[in-house]
Structures are given as structure tokens and as C-alpha cells.
Design a protein that fits this description.
By secondary structure, the protein is of the alpha/beta class. Helix content is about 60%, strand content about 10%. The relative contact order is 0.08.
């Protein structure tokens, strides 16, 4: 029985370093260095413009709106105005921050207004320029980010196709799909806008602190008194959020696994009246997903208000301490800090404090998505780090054209270490021979044929084809010469023509039609609405099981393999269709080595070798007649299956040959 996806969640529960995960993402961005360089230039340029604005705003006050300048602009150069200016100290101290322009004490009102107007226009221009550069920056970053996501998804998709079948027997399809879709979506949300916002925010915070320290180091330290608290709050909340988001990513995988399984098995669910139980199970998975996401959002949601409260405290400190220092110093003077404090400087620091808090808020807003993206990236990289159990040797060569002499040399195989499924299997199949493999359920029949195309590897012994060890040749060249038809036929949502030519895309339409005629599929294909161009539904929906099987046989016939593997390929068709297929298979099998997991006596009778497998060992071998003559397990099963039905003659037994020898298998 398939395990519930919750049992697989532990594989992704191990936390990885966020810096290591981001560093690994950076490896993908390195391919778009030109775009990142341009984004870096735009970030610096845009941030520089934003850094200038509070300073220029303060200069507008100190350089143009000081008491003396206001009085002068009003035409008041009397003692009261000069007295007011005297309270600010000398002119050099009053205008020490006026690097944009140097105001003249004798400037006229028109000159003062002109200078102030130019400064205001510059501030407006900086706002507009910063906005334009930011928009361009986000566009370029999103462009490169989506390309990175495309590359990452392509790598994941390719890796999935190279993973061994063992991986998919241990992992739910829904959970694997969740990594490819939902976890990629979390990256998509952050990889452009979110990532740039965080990077620009960090640069803006550092730059703002540096400018504040340069303007007035003591006052800057007072203004940044809440910075350590912000750092500690961010670190704690983000750490908790990342753990919660990692759990949330696992839970959404469980939800998808339940959903995929229930939809795929909807017929079985309805047949056994399990709708209510399945709905309840889905509710439990969905509830766990809800709780995990609520917990994650609770941490990230608490971070924003916490930082906002600390930012208001910081703003109050700047305004309160600055105002007291200004009042105690009666204007521009040394005051308590031993450095000049002016109205303009206080306004500048208020602006920088707001500018400092703004990126903090932005980072807090994006942090939730960033933590979710890191958790999603961990799961994606965890999938990429899954090793393929079956790999080609570094010096593996292509399998040459084969005749089909297959030998199993004392083969042992196991799915789990220490639990052998096959024990010392020996088989010698000459070119053109048909080998029928029979035995009870769980005997190891499927494992024997799965070893031939290297879906699994032997744990001991060896398998050779024409003397070539399968482990010494490339998987692709090996599988190219093997055709497989299974009981559970998989057809793609494509045309009938493309489904048949799936293993040989370059085949012409005429060759496809010949293969369909060989498998007796041509007649029913011609009756389809669009013939060979009819688009099939998912997994061949709309066709009967027998029709799907006929298409699968046509698909194998087209590739003209030297070795055939048939898992009772005719078991899902009616007797008349089976006879037609048997006639076609006689032509197809001629000159080819075939391994057939057989359940029907009609198939076993025509085999050159019959292997009776039980408990992972071949306990009897021979032809149908020789095995009957031995009087062993095979003969005993045959007698119990047919003689008890009252058949008196060989003709009567032959008439019953369509019956399954192993009806429960």
C-alpha cells in the first residue's frame, strides 16, 4: 500500500542555511551578469538620489529660511533681525551645511526666492529620477529573474527524468509536482521585485547611517538608538518564520499529494463508497496546511508592527532630543553634544530617520515572501540533490546493434538493503527465443524484466546482452533496442499519430500506419472522429482498455526492437482481438528475444522456455510439455486449474487455454 505523503515529509524537514540557499541561487544569476551589473548601477544611482533629498530639505531651511534670511527677504535688516541671527552664532556655523549653495547676507528677496526655487526643483527632479530608475531597475531584474526561474525549472524537469524508478516508488507524485509548481511560484514572487527591494533597502539603510554619522555623529547615535532592537527583532521573527514556512511548504505538498491521488483514483473511490473518508482525509491535510501557514504569517505579520513601533520611537527621539538641544542652545550652537544643531539639521535627521525606517518596513514586508522563497528553494534544491540510483559509468559506451542473446549470471536484486527480491537467478535466452515467466504474485517476475532495461540494477551477479554487461553501456543506447508493452498502458494527451511514433519521432506517417495495421489498431483508428489526428484525452481517455493496448503494441512495433518485454500485453482485450494480436505478435516476435510475464495458458504454450518463479528464485524451467512431464509445482498448478473443471481431452484443455493460469495475479 502506498504510504501517506506525510510519511515522506521528513525528507525536507532538515533545515539548511538561508545564506547557503541564497548563495546557490546566485549561481544561476551569474549567467546574467550584464543584467545584474546594470541593476547594481541603477540601485546605487536611485539610492543616491533618495539619500540627497533629506539633506537638501534641511538646506532649504538653514540656507534660505533661517531667521536672518527671512527677515532680509522681508526687507527687515534692522536690529531685531541681526539680533536674531546673532543667536545662531557666526555665519560660517549657521551655513556650514549649505554645500548646495552659499547664501549671501546681502542677497535680495528675489535672489533668495530664486535659489530656494532652484533647490525645490532639484528635490522634485531627484524624486522623479529615482522613481524612473527604480522602475527600470525592477523591470530588468524581473526579466533576468524569470530567466533564472526558467533555467531552474528546466534543470529540475531534466533531473526528474534522470531519477531512477526507485525514487518515484518512494515519493508521492503530488509532492513532487508541488516542488516543481508551488515552490517555484514562491521563488517567482520574490526573485524580481522582492529581491531588488531587499537589496536596495539594505543599501539605503547602510548609506543613510553613514551620511547621518558624517553630518553629526553624536546626534546620529542618538537617532539610531532603536537599531539594535530592530536587528534583534528581525533576526528572531525571521528565524521562526523560515521554520514555519518550511513546514508550510511540506504541508502544501501533502495537500497536492492527497488531491492528485484522489482524482486519479476517483473510480475506485466511488466504487468502494469512500467519498466521505477521502473528503475527511483531505480536510485533515488542508487543516494542517492552514495551521502551518497561519503560524508562518503570524511571525511575519508580527515583524512589521514591531519594526513600525520602533521606527516611531526613533522618530520621537530625533524630534524630542533635537528640539531640546536646539532650545538649550538658543539656535545654532554646540549644545550638549558639542556640535552644531540647527532647525535644518533636525529636519534633515527626521527625513533620514523616515528614510531609514522606510526600507526597514519594506524589508519586513518582503521578508515573509523571502522566507517562504528560501523554504521553497530548499525543497527544490533538495530535489536536485537527489542522486540517481542508476547512472552510466564515466567510460560507458553505446550498445552496438544486438542480436538478442540475453544471459542472467547468478543475479541477486533488492529494493531495500538486506531484503533480496531475487536470489541467484540464471537465465540464458538465445536470439529469437520467447521466455515466459510465470509464478504467484510477489514472486519476483516484474523485477526480472525490470533489470533488463536497467530500471533497477543487480546487487550481485551480472546481466549481459551479446556478451556486453548492461552496466558497461549507456542506458539510452540499451533502452533504444528494447521494446516494452505493459498491462497498464500510458498514452499522452496528443494525437494518435504522435502517440504511436512516441519512441521514434522521425518516423513517417506511412510507417506509423503500417505499425498500426500490424497491431490491428488501424481499423478502430480509422473510425475515430479525426482518424490518426484525433487528440486523445488524458491517459487515453475515450478509448477502451483494449484499444489503448493495441496502440501500445503499435508503438513498440514501430521502433522495431531486438528485445521485447511483454507484461501480458493481451490480457485486457477480448478473445477475438487477442487472437488477432497473437497473429501480429508472431510476426513481431520472429527473430527477436522476448520476455513475457504470462498468465494465460495460450501464451505459455508457445514459449521456448517457461520459468516458474517463486520467492525470488527460478524453481522450475523448461517447455510447457516438459514441465508437465516433470510433475512439479507447474504441473500441480496446471492440474488443479484445469483438471478440476472436468476437461477430459487435450482438445478440451486447449479450448480452455484462454483462462488465466494465475487468475489472482
Amino acid at each position: 500500500m502506498m504510504q501517506h505523503p506525510r510519511q515522506f515529509a521528513a525528507e525536507t524537514s532538515k533545515a539548511r542555511s538561508a545564506s547557503a540557499t541564497l548563495g546557490r541561487l546566485w549561481q544561476y544569476f551569474r549567467h546574467y551578469g550584464w543584467a545584474l551589473l546594470l541593476v547594481a548601477v541603477l540601485i546605487v544611482s536611485s539610492t543616491y538620489m533618495q539619500i540627497l533629498i533629506p539633506n537638501l530639505t534641511g538646506q532649504a531651511v538653514d540656507c534660505y529660511l533661517s531667521p536672518y534670511t527671512v527677515a532680509q527677504a522681508a526687507g527687515e535688516t534692522s536690529g531685531s533681525a541681526l539680533s536674531a541671527f546673532a543667536n545662531f552664532g557666526n555665519a560660517d556655523e549657521a551655513f556650514s551645511n549649505c554645500w548646495y549653495t552659499t547664501p549671501r547676507l546681502d542677497a535680495t528677496a528675489a535672489e533668495t526666492l530664486s535659489g530656494l526655487g532652484g533647490l525645490i526643483l532639484l528635490i522634485v527632479g531627484l524624486y522623479v529620477g529615482s522613481a524612473v530608475l527604480s522602475g527600470l531597475m525592477f523591470y530588468i531584474m524581473s526579466l533576468s529573474g524569470y530567466r533564472v526561474l526558467r533555467d531552474l525549472q528546466a534543470q529540475v524537469f531534466g533531473h526528474l527524468h534522470h531519477l531512477s524508478l526507485g525514487y518515484f516508488t518512494k515519493h508521492e507524485v503530488g509532492d513532487v509536482m508541488s516542488r516543481f509548481t508551488n515552490d517555484s511560484d514562491t521563488l517567482q514572487q520574490v526573485i524580481g521585485f522582492g529581491l531588488v527591494s531587499v537589496l536596495q533597502g539594505i543599501l539605503q539603510i547602510v548609506w543613510t547611517i553613514w551620511v547621518m554619522v558624517r553630518l553629526n555623529a553624536p546626534f546620529a547615535l542618538i537617532s539610531l538608538v532603536t537599531l539594535p532592537l530592530m536587528f534583534l527583532a528581525t533576526r528572531w521573527f525571521s528565524g521562526q518564520a523560515r521554520k514555519a514556512f518550511r513546514r508550510a511548504r511540506q504541508q502544501i505538498g501533502n495537500v497536492n499529494a492527497d488531491l492528485q491521488e484522489s482524482i486519479s483514483a476517483v473510480r475506485e473511490v466511488q466504487a468502494f463508497s469512500r467519498e466521505d473518508e477521502n473528503i475527511q482525509q483531505f480536510r485533515e491535510s488542508n487543516a494542517a496546511n492552514r495551521d502551518a501557514n497561519i503560524r508562518a504569517q503570524a511571525y511575519t505579520g508580527a515583524l512589521g508592527p514591531t519594526l513600525e513601533a520602533l521606527s516611531f520611537v526613533s522618530l520621537a527621539v530625533v524630534a524630542g532630543v533635537g528640539g531640546m538641544l536646539l532650545l538649550n542652545g538658543n539656535g545654532v550652537g554646540t549644545g550638549v553634544l558639542g556640535t552644531a544643531i540647527s532647525v535644518g539639521l533636525i529636519i534633515t535627521f527626521i527625513g533620514y530617520t523616515q528614510q531609514f525606517n522606510r526600507p526597514v518596513q519594506t524589508i519586513a514586508t518582503q521578508w515573509a515572501m523571502l522566507q517562504s522563497a528560501v523554504a521553497g528553494a530548499e525543497r527544490i534544491f533538495g530535489l536536485l540533490d537527489e542522486p540517481a540510483e542508476i547512472t552510466d559509468k564515466p567510460d560507458a559506451k553505446d550498445m552496438p546493434n544486438i542480436t538478442g542473446h540475453v544471459v542472467y549470471h547468478d543475479v541477486w536484486a533488492e529494493y531495500n538493503p538486506g531484503e533480496p527480491v531475487l536470489r541467484g537467478v540464471d537465465i540464458d535466452a538465445r536470439p529469437g527465443e520467447t521466455v515466459a515467466i510465470v509464478g504467484p504474485t510477489g514472486a519476483g517476475k516484474t523485477t526480472i524484466i525490470n533489470l533488463l532495461p536497467r530500471f533497477w540494477d543487480v546487487s550481485e551477479g551480472a546481466i549481459t546482452i551479446d556478451g556486453h554487461d548492461l552496466r558497461d553501456v549507456t542506458q539510452q543506447s540499451l533502452r533504444h533496442q528494447i521494446g516494452i508493452v505493459l498491462q497498464d498502458t500510458f498514452l499522452f494527451s496528443d494525437t494518435v499519430m504522435n502517440n504511436i511514433r512516441y519512441g521514434r519521432p522521425e518516423a513517417s506517417d506511412e510507417e506509423v500506419i503500417v505499425a498500426a495495421q500490424l497491431s490491428h489498431a488501424h481499423e478502430f483508428i480509422e473510425r475515430l472522429p479525426d482518424g490518426y489526428q484525433t487528440v486523445l484525452g488524458e491517459r487515453g481517455a475515450g478509448l477502451s482498455q483494449g484499444q489503448r493496448q493495441l496502440l501500445a503494441i503499435a508503438r513498440v512495433a514501430l521502433i522495431d526492437p531486438r528485445i521485447l518485454i511483454l507484461d501480458e500485453a493481451t490480457s485486457s482485450v477480448d478473445t477475438r482481438t487477442e487472437r488477432q494480436i497473437q497473429q501480429a505478435l508472431e510476426k513481431l516476435l520472429h527473430g527477436r528475444t522476448s520476455f513475457v510475464i504470462a498468465h494465460r495458458l495460450s501464451t505459455i504454450r508457445h514459449a521456448d522456455q517457461v520459468l516458474f518463479v517463486d520467492a525470488g528464485q527460478i524453481i522450475e524451467r523448461g517447455t510447457h510439455d516438459s514441465l508437465l512431464a516433470q510433475g512439479g509445482r507447474y504441473a500441480e498448478l496446471y492440474m488443479s486449474q484445469f483438471r478440476r473443471k472436468g476437461a477430459e481431452t487435450e482438445e478440451e484443455e486447449a479450448a480452455e487455454a484462454e483462462t488465466y493460469l494465475f487468475p489472482g495475479d
